[in-house]
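Case study 2.
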Amino acid sequence: MGKSVSHGPMCLSGVSASEWAERMENEPHDCRPRTSVTEPNIDRADALIRENRRITIKELGAMLSISVGSVEDIVKYHLQYRKVNARWVPHTLTDVSKMVYVQPASRLLQQFEDEGDAFLKSIVTTDETRVHYFIPESQQSSREWRHTSSPKPKRARRSHSAGKVMATFFRDW
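Prediction:
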């Protein structure tokens, strides 16, 4: 019986073997056609994402009955979607609500111009803070799929009516 040599200078290294296997897996060839990344799956994934922008890769994989890696390939490279966070804005103001803030500020400015430093000494400043009893939506849960050319979504901070405490601080100059 002859002796077989399994290791030696003619052997492929572990790194080279895994690179070769990955190349073979990702490249289409005659032996095994790609069955997951197909036009019907791409179209279904696009429809599901448009229906629910917050859907996860795992959920898409379960709905399409394909692997998470194939779903990532479809979403990122074929559909060119990316997950983005909504930008926080203090609140969305209408023209009417903007005027509610501008009018008192204009009156105070006019009074300062009329009275000068004496007006400043008569000011009592206040600061308020509200403590709400709710769990805000996390950034992770608010992420949405968008095309790379789409603008980031905007989300207004909502005031919650139930379970809040107001603390007010006064300061006299």
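The chain has a mean pLDDT of 77.
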